[in-house]
Protein backbone atom coordinates (compact mmCIF):
# COMPACT_ATOMS: atom_id res chain seq x y z
CA UNK A 1 0.00 0.00 0.00
CA UNK A 2 1.51 3.38 -0.99
CA UNK A 3 1.67 6.43 1.27
CA UNK A 4 -1.14 8.15 -0.56
CA UNK A 5 -3.49 5.46 0.72
CA UNK A 6 -2.52 5.97 4.37
CA UNK A 7 -5.12 7.62 6.57
CA UNK A 8 -4.55 10.67 8.75
CA UNK A 9 -6.16 11.91 11.92
CA UNK A 10 -7.53 15.46 11.96
CA UNK A 11 -8.55 17.17 15.18
CA UNK A 12 -10.79 20.19 14.88
CA UNK A 13 -11.89 22.29 17.85
CA UNK A 14 -13.30 25.73 18.45
CA UNK A 15 -15.73 27.54 20.70
CA UNK A 16 -19.41 26.78 20.56
CA UNK A 17 -20.94 29.26 18.12
CA UNK A 18 -17.86 29.27 15.87
CA UNK A 19 -19.79 27.43 13.16
CA UNK A 20 -17.68 24.27 13.35
CA UNK A 21 -20.43 21.83 12.39
CA UNK A 22 -21.42 23.82 9.31
CA UNK A 23 -17.80 24.07 8.22
CA UNK A 24 -17.21 20.34 8.72
CA UNK A 25 -20.38 19.41 6.83
CA UNK A 26 -19.37 21.58 3.87
CA UNK A 27 -15.77 20.35 4.03
CA UNK A 28 -16.95 16.73 3.68
CA UNK A 29 -18.90 17.71 0.56
CA UNK A 30 -16.36 19.98 -1.07
CA UNK A 31 -12.84 18.84 -0.25
CA UNK A 32 -11.50 16.11 -2.54
CA UNK A 33 -9.68 14.12 0.12
CA UNK A 34 -11.07 10.85 1.53
CA UNK A 35 -12.49 12.59 4.61
CA UNK A 36 -14.62 10.76 7.14
CA UNK A 37 -16.24 12.24 10.24
CA UNK A 38 -15.84 10.13 13.36
CA UNK A 39 -19.14 9.65 15.20
CA UNK A 40 -18.65 10.28 18.92
CA UNK A 41 -20.60 8.82 21.82
CA UNK A 42 -22.42 11.06 24.29
CA UNK A 43 -24.66 10.81 27.33
CA UNK A 44 -26.66 13.92 26.39
CA UNK A 45 -30.10 13.42 24.87
CA UNK A 46 -30.60 13.75 21.12
CA UNK A 47 -31.75 17.17 19.90
CA UNK A 48 -34.59 17.36 17.45
CA UNK A 49 -33.52 15.79 14.16
CA UNK A 50 -30.43 14.07 15.57
CA UNK A 51 -30.12 10.37 14.76
CA UNK A 52 -28.42 7.66 16.79
CA UNK A 53 -25.31 6.39 15.00
CA UNK A 54 -25.28 9.34 12.61
CA UNK A 55 -24.85 12.47 14.74
CA UNK A 56 -23.76 10.65 17.87
CA UNK A 57 -24.10 7.28 19.53
CA UNK A 58 -26.47 8.25 22.33
CA UNK A 59 -25.61 6.16 25.40
CA UNK A 60 -26.96 5.94 28.93
CA UNK A 61 -24.56 6.97 31.72
CA UNK A 62 -24.12 3.31 32.63
CA UNK A 63 -23.37 2.16 29.11
CA UNK A 64 -20.90 5.01 28.62
CA UNK A 65 -19.04 4.15 31.83
CA UNK A 66 -18.99 0.43 30.95
CA UNK A 67 -17.51 1.17 27.56
CA UNK A 68 -15.07 3.58 29.17
CA UNK A 69 -13.97 0.89 31.63
CA UNK A 70 -13.56 -1.53 28.72
CA UNK A 71 -11.10 0.93 27.13
CA UNK A 72 -13.28 1.63 24.10
CA UNK A 73 -12.55 5.37 24.05
CA UNK A 74 -9.50 7.01 22.55
CA UNK A 75 -10.39 10.00 24.72
CA UNK A 76 -13.46 11.01 26.68
CA UNK A 77 -14.37 14.10 28.68
CA UNK A 78 -17.18 15.73 30.53
CA UNK A 79 -17.81 18.77 28.37
CA UNK A 80 -19.22 22.13 29.64
CA UNK A 81 -19.34 20.77 33.20
CA UNK A 82 -23.03 19.95 32.82
CA UNK A 83 -22.56 16.28 33.61
CA UNK A 84 -22.68 15.09 30.01
CA UNK A 85 -19.90 12.88 28.72
CA UNK A 86 -18.54 12.85 25.20
CA UNK A 87 -16.00 10.41 23.79
CA UNK A 88 -14.18 9.34 20.65
CA UNK A 89 -14.62 5.63 20.00
CA UNK A 90 -11.37 3.87 19.11
CA UNK A 91 -13.21 1.69 16.65
CA UNK A 92 -14.37 4.75 14.64
CA UNK A 93 -10.79 5.95 14.31
CA UNK A 94 -9.03 2.65 13.62
CA UNK A 95 -11.47 1.40 10.98
CA UNK A 96 -11.38 4.81 9.27
CA UNK A 97 -7.60 5.01 9.24
CA UNK A 98 -7.20 1.41 8.12
CA UNK A 99 -9.53 2.11 5.21
CA UNK A 100 -7.20 4.98 4.20
CA UNK A 101 -9.57 7.73 5.31
CA UNK A 102 -8.67 11.07 6.79
CA UNK A 103 -10.67 10.83 9.98
CA UNK A 104 -12.00 14.09 11.43
CA UNK A 105 -12.61 14.42 15.15
CA UNK A 106 -14.73 17.44 16.05
CA UNK A 107 -13.97 17.53 19.76
CA UNK A 108 -13.51 19.97 22.61
CA UNK A 109 -10.18 21.45 23.67
CA UNK A 110 -9.62 19.14 26.64
CA UNK A 111 -10.06 16.06 24.45
CA UNK A 112 -7.86 17.54 21.73
CA UNK A 113 -5.05 18.34 24.18
CA UNK A 114 -5.02 14.76 25.45
CA UNK A 115 -4.64 13.44 21.89
CA UNK A 116 -1.85 15.94 21.11
CA UNK A 117 0.08 14.50 24.04
CA UNK A 118 -0.09 11.03 22.48
CA UNK A 119 2.91 10.72 20.19
CA UNK A 120 1.59 7.68 18.37
CA UNK A 121 -1.27 9.64 16.77
CA UNK A 122 0.41 12.78 15.33
CA UNK A 123 -2.89 14.43 14.37
CA UNK A 124 -3.25 17.50 12.17
CA UNK A 125 -4.79 20.01 14.58
CA UNK A 126 -6.98 22.97 13.68
CA UNK A 127 -8.66 25.58 15.84
CA UNK A 128 -11.57 27.41 14.28
CA UNK A 129 -13.07 30.59 15.69
CA UNK A 130 -15.04 33.60 14.50
CA UNK A 131 -12.29 36.18 15.01
CA UNK A 132 -13.16 37.81 18.33
CA UNK A 133 -15.31 37.52 21.42
CA UNK A 134 -17.77 40.22 20.23
CA UNK A 135 -18.41 38.25 17.05
CA UNK A 136 -18.83 35.02 19.00
CA UNK A 137 -21.33 36.67 21.32
CA UNK A 138 -23.22 38.11 18.33
CA UNK A 139 -23.47 34.64 16.75
CA UNK A 140 -24.60 32.96 19.95
CA UNK A 141 -27.30 35.60 20.39
CA UNK A 142 -28.33 35.40 16.74
CA UNK A 143 -29.16 31.69 17.15
CA UNK A 144 -31.83 32.78 19.60
CA UNK A 145 -31.90 29.32 21.18
CA UNK A 146 -29.93 29.96 24.35
CA UNK A 147 -30.80 31.71 27.59
CA UNK A 148 -28.61 34.50 29.02
CA UNK A 149 -27.11 32.05 31.53
CA UNK A 150 -26.18 29.58 28.81
CA UNK A 151 -24.73 32.35 26.63
CA UNK A 152 -22.59 33.58 29.54
CA UNK A 153 -21.40 30.04 30.35
CA UNK A 154 -20.53 29.36 26.71
CA UNK A 155 -18.66 32.67 26.39
CA UNK A 156 -16.72 31.88 29.54
CA UNK A 157 -15.83 28.42 28.18
CA UNK A 158 -14.88 30.01 24.85
CA UNK A 159 -12.47 32.42 26.60
CA UNK A 160 -10.81 29.46 28.33
CA UNK A 161 -10.65 27.46 25.10
CA UNK A 162 -9.08 30.38 23.22
CA UNK A 163 -6.21 30.31 25.72
CA UNK A 164 -5.19 26.93 24.30
CA UNK A 165 -5.37 27.99 20.67
CA UNK A 166 -1.57 28.23 20.42
CA UNK A 167 -1.32 24.47 21.03
CA UNK A 168 -2.97 23.82 17.66
CA UNK A 169 -0.99 23.73 14.42
CA UNK A 170 -3.46 25.88 12.48
CA UNK A 171 -5.82 28.71 13.35
CA UNK A 172 -8.72 29.27 10.97
CA UNK A 173 -10.98 32.30 11.24
CA UNK A 174 -14.48 31.42 10.15
CA UNK A 175 -15.58 34.75 8.63
CA UNK A 176 -17.17 33.11 5.60
CA UNK A 177 -17.94 29.39 5.59
CA UNK A 178 -16.79 28.90 1.99
CA UNK A 179 -13.46 30.62 2.60
CA UNK A 180 -12.87 28.67 5.82
CA UNK A 181 -13.64 25.40 4.01
CA UNK A 182 -11.26 26.24 1.15
CA UNK A 183 -8.56 27.21 3.63
CA UNK A 184 -8.90 23.99 5.65
CA UNK A 185 -8.95 21.84 2.52
CA UNK A 186 -5.75 23.51 1.33
CA UNK A 187 -4.09 23.08 4.73
CA UNK A 188 -4.89 19.36 4.62
CA UNK A 189 -3.60 18.97 1.08
CA UNK A 190 -0.36 20.73 2.07
CA UNK A 191 0.03 18.22 4.90
CA UNK A 192 -0.22 15.42 2.38
CA UNK A 193 2.85 16.82 0.64
CA UNK A 194 4.66 17.22 3.96
CA UNK A 195 4.18 13.67 5.22
CA UNK A 196 7.52 13.00 6.99
CA UNK A 197 8.16 9.59 5.39
CA UNK A 198 6.56 10.12 2.01
CA UNK A 199 8.08 8.63 -1.12
CA UNK A 200 9.97 11.13 -3.24
P1 LIG B 1 -22.86 19.37 21.28
O1 LIG B 1 -23.53 18.86 22.52
O2 LIG B 1 -23.20 20.80 20.99
O3 LIG B 1 -23.07 18.45 20.10
O4 LIG B 1 -21.28 19.33 21.56
C1 LIG B 1 -20.74 19.98 22.65
C2 LIG B 1 -19.22 19.93 22.60
O5 LIG B 1 -18.75 18.59 22.73
C3 LIG B 1 -18.59 20.47 21.32
O6 LIG B 1 -17.56 21.38 21.68
C4 LIG B 1 -17.98 19.26 20.67
O7 LIG B 1 -16.82 19.58 19.93
C5 LIG B 1 -17.65 18.40 21.87
N1 LIG B 1 -17.52 16.99 21.54
C6 LIG B 1 -18.27 16.27 20.67
N2 LIG B 1 -17.85 15.01 20.60
C7 LIG B 1 -16.76 14.90 21.42
C8 LIG B 1 -15.85 13.84 21.76
O8 LIG B 1 -15.94 12.71 21.30
N3 LIG B 1 -14.87 14.14 22.65
C9 LIG B 1 -14.73 15.38 23.22
N4 LIG B 1 -13.73 15.56 24.07
N5 LIG B 1 -15.55 16.40 22.91
C10 LIG B 1 -16.57 16.17 22.03
What does this entry look like structurally?
The chain is α/β, with parallel strands linked by helices and 200 residues long. Helix content is 40%, strand content 20%. The protein is built from 7 helices and 9 strands; from the N terminus they run E-H-E-E-E-H-E-E-H-E-H-E-H-H-E-H. The strands form 2 sheets. A 5-stranded parallel sheet has the order 2-7-1-8-9, with helices on both faces. Strand 5 (73-78) and strand 6 (85-89) form a beta hairpin. The longest helix has 17 residues, at 177-193. The mean pLDDT is 89. The structure holds guanosine-5'-monophosphate. Guanosine-5'-monophosphate binds at residues 16, 40, 44, 75, 77, 79, 86-88, 106-108, 110-111.
Amino acid sequence: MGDDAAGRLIVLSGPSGAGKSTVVRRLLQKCDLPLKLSVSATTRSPREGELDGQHYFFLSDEEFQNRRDAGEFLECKEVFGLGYWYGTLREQVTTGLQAGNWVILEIDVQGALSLMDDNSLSPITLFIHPGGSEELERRLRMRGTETEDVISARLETAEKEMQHMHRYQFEVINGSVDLAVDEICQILKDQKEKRPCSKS
